Amino acid sequence: GYPVSLVAVRSELANNIKLGDHGSTYGSNPLAFAAVAGATRALLEDNVVEKAAKIGKVLIKRLFEELGNTRFVREIRGVGLMVGIELRKEPTPVLRCLQEKHRVIALKAGSTVLRLLPPYMINLEDVERVVEGVKRCLSY
Where in 45-112 does DSSP place strands (E)? Predict the structure, then answer.
């Protein structure tokens, strides 16, 4: 990653910003602009958002198929590739298992939610690996 930021305001606010009202550590950095331009071009040309939405649906469907009727899972929910698996127990042991035994990095959200945020570039093979890892780690 590369540090960049964007500030967007309504025109009536923008018209009132004077020189010196706003500053930035990385402002007007040509390398940052090039990185943003390249990333934006790749997102648009490669249909990354659409692909991620499709893969996210597959991920959620596969999680439901494998975990939906287990005693460990209360709910599976998500949008795109942002997925939450609400457990009936604290998720830290599952997170540790995923990372150490299956090389899957997940997060904790709240006290009982296992949060999956895979990269946009995840493929179907990796989806299966994640689902299998979660399934195995929940059974420990």
Answer: 73-79, 82-87, 107-109
Round to whole Å and give the CA distance between 106 and 77. Answer: 15
What digits encode the pLDDT tens for the residues 3-52?
Answer: 887 778 899 988 998 888 877 777 778 998 899 999 999 999 999 889 99
Q: Which long-range contacts (CB under 8 A, 24 or more apart) does 35-44 make?
A: 35/2, 35/4, 36/4
Single-letter residue type at 39: A
Domains and CATH numbers, the chain: 11-45 (no CATH), 48-138 (3.90.1150.10)
- Higher-scoring residue by pLDDT: 15, 115: 115
Of 34, 54, 66, the residue nearest 120 (C-alpha)? 54
Residues near 52 by beta carbon (within 8 Å), at least 6 away in sequence: 80, 81, 120, 122
SS3 state of residue 85: strand
Q: Rounded to two decimals, what is the model's pTM? A: 0.77
